[in-house]
Amino acid sequence: MPAARRSYNGSYENEHLSQVAFPMGGMGAGMICLEGTGSFSHVSLHHKPEIFNEPLMFAVLHVNGASTTRVIEGPVPMRKAFGASNTGTGLGYRSYGLPRFAKASFTTRFPFGIVQLTDKTMPVTVELTGWSPFVPGDADNASLPAAGMEYRLRNRTNKSVAGVFSFHAWNFMRANDKAAGTVSPMKGGFLLGAPDTHSMSPYVASWQISRLFPIAGGIAEAPCARLADDLDWKNATMTRGYYANAYERFGAADGFVYIGTRVCVATAGHWVFSIGHDGGMRLFVDGRPTVAKAERESPHRPGRTEVVATMDAGEHEIMFAFELCGFGWGVSLSFGLPPDIVPQEKPEYPTPDQWGLQAAASTGGQFAAFTPSSGVRTDCAWFRGKWFDSLTMLWKNLTVGKIQTKAPFAEGKSSDGGSFYVPFKLKARAGQTIRVLLAWHVPQSGLCLGDGVMCNCKRGPKEPAAYVPWYATRFNDIHAVADYWRTHYDTLRARSKLFSDCFYDTTLPPEVVEAVAANLTILKSPTVLRQHDGRLWGWEGCCDTEGCCSGSCTHVWNYAQALCHLFPNLERTLRETEFLVNQDDRGHQTFRASLPIRPPAHNFHAAADGQLGGIMKVHREWRISGDTAWMKNLWSKVKQSLDYCIATWDPGHTGTLVKPHHNTYDIEFWGADGMCTSFYLGALAAAIRMGRENDADVILYEELLAKGKKAMETTLWNGEFFFQRIPWTGLWAADPATAQSAKINYTPEALALLKKEGPKYQYGNGCLSDGVIGDWLARCSGVSPVLDTAKTARHLRSVFAHNFRKDLSDHANPQRSGYAFGQEGGLLLCSWPRGGKLSLPFPYSEEVWTGIEYHVAAHLIMMGRMREGLRIVRTARDRYDGRYRNPFNEYECGHWYVRAMSSYSLLQALSGAHYDAVSKTLHLQPAMTGDFKAFLSTATGFGTVGVRNGKPFLKVVSGRIDVTRIEYRQ
Prior knowledge:
This protein is α+β, with helices and mostly antiparallel strands and about 950 residues long.
């Protein structure tokens, strides 16, 4: 039987609880997920995602006289029984086998997740609320490394009861169970800690790899080379931060290559280079031959050769001559002091604050669990032993309500975990809330991404070489975080509740409210980082153990519409990075920012949709903030950027993008297309408005806008939808087979297709869901519509008619099918209803992405097609109903994928509410008829907006919103 459909914005129960995991934590501060049953998972506190990190951490309820003690969680979802890591060995060190409540349900009122737990054998029911601060406009408190858990105990009987509440956690801050750690008491609870360990910390700059050379006379005779030599150097693929991949570039080639990098040594001395390789190699340090090895050695460490080299403190150049020998996957490099010369004092290893990369993620830091309740007792000395001794003895005491009060061990191995206990008494039908406050402090990381890593001497005094989280610059240690959290808990909860109540005080369709709220959790996930100076930086999404697709990628973040309204100050830091850091003197923008944020190497295409979208978003941030001075400060860079786009992609001034242009599908479109040209028109329109404010000459932009509109409505319009023309000769562009591109490899078979169909990965006559996205972004950015409204509406109706599938069973998708398949429904990225589908259309064309579903739905609603728009939203949320996918993790190329925050535009589409802080005008053009109420957030306050008894209204709930005029159009 098909599963019963749950109510949108309602509770998750039974099978719909299976995948529920609700993120808690601060923006860029780490994440802990509260599962629908009340357990904890996805614990990611070390500046990287740890999707399958489910450490032993649980609360327990003992009621005197009850039949059994129970973990304060519902039944374990049976999906955990097998399939994930370590399930085949029995899932030791889990609480799955301990008694727990019989029934659970979960509801959310973001940022609050609420778990209801009941059991007929227990006289006490529990309501568990997990949350972390989230108040629009208050970015700092929304970036705290903290979460709150509130256990509301209620006596459901007519007799008084007494018992013990307790909270327990294995020391998951250690790198592994055998690593050193500390468990210590603190006010109201315990601290889990682990020392920073950097003894094998990679500290290399970006790798460079040369062209392929023939081997003559053996690798030991390879001549010396330097990075300054002209050897056709290219950036080598970086994997795990320190591994240079030669195989990806050369395949199974015979010969040798040079692989070079620079290192920064903190202390003079002898250093061990642990080199992973498959063939012979020769090592040069600062141009001096150091060692040659005909083949790998160290049989106890397959593929490793250990070399000792002497280096003074400072920067050095390391160069390998590396034999590919028919396979040659690459070279890895890590460092340590030789065992026979390790000094008695702790060696000064090159730590991440000196030089670091992604692989060197910190293993240190501290985690606190504490309660403000009175009478709390703390146990920092769990029973030490083998096998399952610790948990066995802990549970033995819990079943009889025994309260343990023990100091840390004075000798030997530290405790494997910590506990605290709170005794309670409940009168008949009475309740009591016990708060558990969680906080953490991991001040360093090894994250350093992008080209141009700088040594200490080239950086400013306050510029770290690796990512340092913003919160570490505000709080010196875990005690400072815990004190702040304890002191401000009540105020932050009240303010977060005020936002939550206001957000849900709406008459908008529940599926829309659910879609918007569910994707606000992206801001609490490891997708988002916030560096030491407060600037935001983001991945596109999260892989299981590391970020996915780095650098606040402009063509993906184009879609995200939540941050700019909720935390506009943070959104503006993204624009400042794009235009002031990532843009060179030509106007070329690198669409991926380095981390820490610093000037990048400009060695790849600009992204047309990302760069043009950024111009519209500068206009958006200006109108949201009302800060004209900020816009004027960026204007020269905006003009430079747009002029670069014109010169690079529209040198003939056609009003369309003609020359090959990189875009969000990770390829280049050849010839004019509706999607990127709509971005172009939106950028021109935004620049015209900003230019006039700056008394600039915008005549060229006006001419190009007019030409572009005409071209869109004639040469790129087939009467039903906008499409792409694919000329690929005579464009003053390189041969497609040899042009620089991300992942295009023209094999002999592909060359045959090129001659027949043109370049790979185009869409041509296809009906593209993104085909008029520039018009959507223009509307979201306060720019007037840039396309003919009737044709835009017709295109979107065609997208719905041809690309929306209520059932994908008959759809063939040889690409990434996990987002939607089988009997699920979804909106395809593209279809070819008029024929002409290319043999190899653009990658992802057969897929379903929620980020595109939501922006198309919003655009349809803006065009008066509410029925179609809401159907797309419902179909997307039906896939994320908790049975097979986490309702709070809409993924694309990674978990918590940024593009899904396009869902926020549904608020603007339905309410038609747009506040212009420059003119202090509230524009209100609702898509629905009659009275309604919706949430509105501005740079200075939030509240509700709508129509009551046929008249527009604005109710400010927090802050202020200065409105001199409401422009209401029905």
